[in-house]
Fold these 3 entries.
Entry 1:
Amino acid sequence: MKKLLKDPDKYYQPKKRPSGHDISSRFGKDNGGAIPSNLLQIPNSESNSQYLQGCKLIGAKRHPARFPAKLPEFFIRFLTDPNDLVVDIFAGSNTTGAVAEKEGRSWLAFENNLDYLATSSFRFLPSSTKADTLNQIYQCINSRETVSLAEYIPQPSLFAPRTAHPVP
């Protein structure tokens, strides 16, 4: 494409295709973007993520077909805008949901296996979450109880905690 943009006349002559599709001189126009290649080189080297640590802490089974966060990140950034909705109908360990949230998108995730659904919650909790809390969340989700993870995530504060000696 770079060669075509540099010298369109050398590489392509506008004409009507046998299918009837008209490829005009606009085909060689530089729109300032790039079409991604058909091969994404993303290593799958996750070995100590929050998700894996949580599974290990409580002895839960890890999803066997996890993929690196860079994969859904590429497509989420490429195909959606902030505040768009991302849907994953085979969530597994919910890598896509975690990335969507990090990228400022709303998301829906569907997973048939309750164990995978329960352990996917570890992706959204602070890494400092204790094993007993992780286990409690895991057990509740596996029992089909509703769990609000917001209760376990520290919220930012505008003010520092009160001290014995207020600042004048």
Note: The mean pLDDT is 88.
Entry 2:
Amino acid sequence: MGYDLERFVVYRPLQAPCEHAYCDACISSWLIHHHSCPEDRLPLDISTLRPLHRYMRNDLSRLQIRCVNSGQGCDAVCCLETLHTHEDECPFTFISCSYTGTTALCITVSCPVQVERRGLESHLLECEFRSRACPSGCGHTLLSVDQTQHNCVAELRIELELLRAEMLGKVEEVRREMESRLDSQRRHMVQKESLLKSEVEDLKGQVSRVVCDVRLGGRAPAETGAGRSGAREEGATGDAPEPAAIKEPAEQRQANQRTAS
């Protein structure tokens, strides 16, 4: 909501048409169940709220206020405008430990401790969730809380098994990929072979048609020549026509008759 009562001042103020000002979160939650100004009970809707006038916001920004960590010992007093900057750097502010690690059971855990900012460095030096290399030199990173239970030989065996399983997985993956490629190439070759066979059959058909055309074209002229030769032979070897009777000239016939008489 806003600041506590000892540090009371409106937080992100909004002003109603009746000029009463309230915290943004406070008046918004009020108007969920009520539709009037909390001060004078005049009708009020959330859409009619407006930011506070600039001069009023400037006056609020210059107000002096104690740090939120005054109960932990911080005696800083600053203006409201710079309060958040101070609280982000205040040494009395509680912050969470930043250490996160992985246990021996491969479970990721975070340190649940919250310490004041001024004591964070000393806590990090002794935090149970601080990671560091194995002092025996096996190469593993350990949490301080797991150091007493760490066994280098067992850890290396586990790591070896993990590497072996990873290698076998990669080999199997490569094998499946190669089989997939070979199957693809095999299907491609089968399709190519089928296409070539089809083309060969088409070519055979074309060659057969050409051969038939050539044979038919050579036989027709031969038959025509044979017919003409037969006609000539028939004319040469056939029976010659009987010669017509030779007529005797009239003068010769008359001469023959005179001689006979």
Note: Residues 152-237 form the longest helix (86 residues).
Entry 3:
Amino acid sequence: MLCKQRSVMCYVLLPSCILFSTLFSVSSFDSNSQEIPTFGKYLVSLGSKRLLAENSGKYLVSSGAKRLLAENSGKYLVSSGVKRLLADNSGDYVSNSALILAEGRTYRKDPLNDFKRYTGGWNISEKHYWASVAYTGAPIFILAGIWFVVFGVCLVVIALYYCCCRRPPYGYSRIAYALSLILLILFTVAAIIGCIVLYTGQGKFHSSTSNTLDYVVDQANQTAENLKDVSEYLAAAKRIGVDQVFLPANVQTDIDEIQTKINSSATTLATRTADNSDDIKHLIDSVRLTLIILSAVMLLITFIGFVFSIFGMQSFVYILVIITWILVAGTFILCGVFLVLHNATADTCVAMNEWVQNPTAHTALDDILPCVENITAQETLNKTKEVTSQLVNVINQVITNVSNVNFSPVFVPLYYNQSGPLLPTLCNPFNPDLLERKCSSGEVDLNNATKVWKNFVCEVSSSGICITTGRLTPAIYNQMAAGVNVSYGLYHYGPFLVSLQDCSFVRQTFTDVHTTYCPGLRKYSRYIYIGLLLVSVAVMLSILFWVIYGRERRHRVYTKEHVPKPVGDFEQEKQT
């Protein structure tokens, strides 16, 4: 009898050991999580001038890159300016990068390379990187497979046993009955807690990923708008004429060419950003809905199974056992997927942070950043400087050769009775070689030129001749003010174009993502996979105790009904 009780206690306590050992080892699945996730392949680069091509999936990764490069089996909204891909040499990853990104985090076993350690660092274009990341979820995937196969076999054996060898139940152990009830309650509570963690985590994770995506989209839209503004200023510069003096013909031709490139870049960036951000939002919303449904279903099944088991409704319990058997296997798989996603996105954040510290080194990020060979940005920058300088020259020609000259009335249309103090010339912010220059004394800069010149405007007659002291007619002043405004606009966007060329905007964006968004992504993605694991294990053990407690309850009822009562009990009944 003692041996029987011990064996019963063993099968009651064994699942408890499984739960605690599994939860204790969960931290080891987190593959050296030192830094922050960024939603896997999704968030890689931002603020570029064009977008990089589509490459087996749909991910929003960059905004504002320099060029939109071609499609390659799928749809990624990534960054442009792709320069090179890292080599895959005879099945072994060989990095030609001067800097290996996230080298410590990515030092994992590679199942595609005989389980040798992967040493290539973060590189989303490298299959060995993805294989090593996927391997971090192997323990949970294996657990899902073992659970599905072993418990499925057990269900078949139990079904055959009850069909062919059914015998009446025997006596029961009060200790086993009490322990099974206590542990059933314990694992039911654990499953409820896991569902709460999962639901809370998915809400926070959805909010964090949505905020990150919104930030990326805002960066892309801001870049596209700035490019469109530059294009509009260049177009306006073509139309600027001061007293019938216009930009040289060759400059206007160059403006047409650079405008075509800018408009193409801005339109492509805005269109792809909108399309792919919608796809990613749909994906994020789908993930959220899946997790909400899963947590609700698991919570409902756990509660219903507990109630059915307590009230001895064994037929319904068996049906729930079969349904939950499949659901638990699926939950384990989903848990493994989120663990892989958590580690991949953490790698990405580490890679971004390391690149920010070494922006000039050749790394795997060269594949998706526009910081190398950004020809269009350089051409645009040079052209805006040239157009700004030429507009200033046009205005100064009119000031020097017309407004500040006291012509005789016979020199119409140059004569309009200009008089009074001489008009100050406009400061050209660039030398002939397009390098920055300081304003000379007596010049007015682009910031206050229109205010200063307004004091030199005269009143005119119906024929356009000044009837008061002044060097400018209202018409000429308006033309010069328009030229100054266009020049100021082009000059104002110079730093933006420089940031496109040297990738300072990417460094700033990466810094913002790393410091502001990555901590939340890492924290809440961990909540999700821990919640999934807790739900999976707790519900798995609850299934066992639905059956175990139901068996003990059935044996207890049978014992009370069929086992003869002691003689003392009969005597007590007669007396009563």
Note: Residues 375-502 form one domain.
